[in-house]
């Protein structure tokens, strides 16, 4: 059953992981999906897979912390159909892992800024269109680290915690103007974000990216008189 036909969804970090799975599932429901990330080959592969399954997909290579490149991507997305109905702010990365006492200041700031700036800039660029339409939905993909303290993850967690307050404030600002703003806070998900180094929790006990995507789609297909607001999602067996 197609429930999102005619809607356009912009997914940052749509080249792989949670973003790619979300794009595939939104496309299955009939949405036209627009993927934004930096790695062209992954964007192309995900878009090709969606098209091969009968969906509509476009992609733009951009770093979400680069306002100029991101503006071009958003304008490109708007040029496709003229509207933007869904934004999934999903791009993110983990760096600057380790205790605060030995952290490297420039790497720490880069991690905090990189994770937060894209969320703000993409929202800032998309929001006027949604408000003009009087209709729109935004899901911010945050992390359980936004709300619980994990030693060694300070820069990433501070960015996600700021993203949570950003979500709450934006929801308050626009909820009476037709725009629904939500956040999902997953625990450990089995994606490339964990890298290949030592000390990674057991991958088989993590959540599948397709499960997180399914929940994001459920948030986006909640009846319009309700909002999921904030959704915490933990691995059933409790890794993170
Ligand atoms: N995996 C987990 O355990 C977990 C748990 C909670 C929350 N999350 C959150 O879920 C989101 C998706 O992560 P994932 O687990 O799916 O990781 P992933 O597989 O590494 O995917 C991250 C995506 O974000 C893109 N990205 C990263 N930095 C970007 C930038 N500056 N500009 C544009 N695109 C950028 C990446 O593409 P490029 O590198 O090609 O740009 C990639 O497409 C992130 O926000 C992450 O913090 C993940």
Domain module count: 1
By secondary-structure content and strand pairing, the structural class works out as alpha/beta
Assess the beta-strand content as a share of residues: 15-25%
Overall average residue pLDDT: 95
Question: At the fourth CATH level, what is the homologous superfamily?
Answer: NAD(P)-binding Rossmann-like Domain
Physical arrangement of strands within the biggest beta sheet = 3-2-1-4-5-6-7
The stretches of 5 or more residues where confidence is low (pLDDT under 50) are: none
The CATH class, by name, is: Alpha Beta
Compressed to H and E, one letter per element, the order equals EHEHEHEHEHEHE
Do you know the CATH architecture? 3-Layer(aba) Sandwich
- Tally of helical segments: 6
Number of DSSP strand runs: 7
Key features?
7-stranded parallel sheet, Rossmann fold, alpha/beta, 240 residues, globular, binds NADP nicotinamide-adenine-dinucleotide phosphate, single chain
Q: Helices, strands, pairings?
A:
Elements: E1 8-12, H1 17-28, E2 32-37, H2 40-52, E3 56-61, H3 67-81, E4 86-89, H4 105-133, E5 136-141, H5 154-174, E6 179-186, H6 209-220, E7 230-233
Parallel strand pairs: 1-2, 1-4, 2-3, 4-5, 5-6, 6-7
Helix pairs in contact: 1-6, 3-4, 4-5
NADP nicotinamide-adenine-dinucleotide phosphate (NAP) binds next to α1 and α4.
Would you write up a description of this structure?
By secondary structure, the protein is an alpha/beta fold. The chain has a single domain, classed as Rossmann fold (3-Layer(aba) Sandwich), CATH 3.40.50.720. It has 6 helices and 7 strands; from the N terminus they run βαβαβαβαβαβαβ. Strand 6, helix 6 and strand 7 form a beta-alpha-beta unit. NADP nicotinamide-adenine-dinucleotide phosphate binds at residues 12-13, 15-19, 37-39, 42, 63-65, 90-93, 114, 118, 141, 143, 186, 188-189, 191-193, 209.
């Amino acid at each position: 059953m197609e429930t999102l036909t005619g809607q356009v969804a912009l997914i940052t970090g749509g080249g792989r992981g949670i973003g790619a799975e979300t794009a595939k599932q939104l496309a299955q429901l009939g949405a036209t999906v627009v993927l934004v990330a930096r790695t062209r080959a992954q964007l192309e592969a995900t878009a090709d897979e969606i098209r091969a399954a009968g969906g509509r997909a476009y992609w733009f290579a951009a770093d979400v912390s680069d306002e100029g490149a991101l503006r071009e991507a958003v304008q490109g997305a708007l040029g496709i159909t003229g509207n933007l109905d869904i934004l999934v702010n999903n791009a993110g990365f983990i760096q600057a892992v380790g205790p605060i006492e030995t952290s490297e200041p420039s790497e720490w700031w880069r991690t905090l800024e990189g994770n937060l700036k894209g969320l703000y800039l993409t929202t800032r660029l998309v929001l006027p269109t949604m408000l003009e339409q009087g209709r729109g939905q935004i899901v911010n993909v945050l992390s359980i680290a936004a709300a619980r303290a994990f030693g060694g993850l300070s820069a990433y967690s501070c960015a996600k915690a700021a993203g949570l307050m950003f979500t709450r404030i934006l929801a308050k600002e626009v909820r009476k103007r037709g725009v629904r703003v939500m956040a999902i806070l997953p625990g450990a998900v089995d994606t490339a974000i964990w890298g290949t180094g030592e000390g990674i929790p057991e991958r088989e006990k993590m959540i599948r990216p397709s499960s997180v995507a399914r929940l994001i789609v459920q948030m986006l297909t909640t009846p319009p008189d309700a909002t999921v607001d904030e959704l915490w999602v933990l691995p059933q067996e409790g890794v993170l």
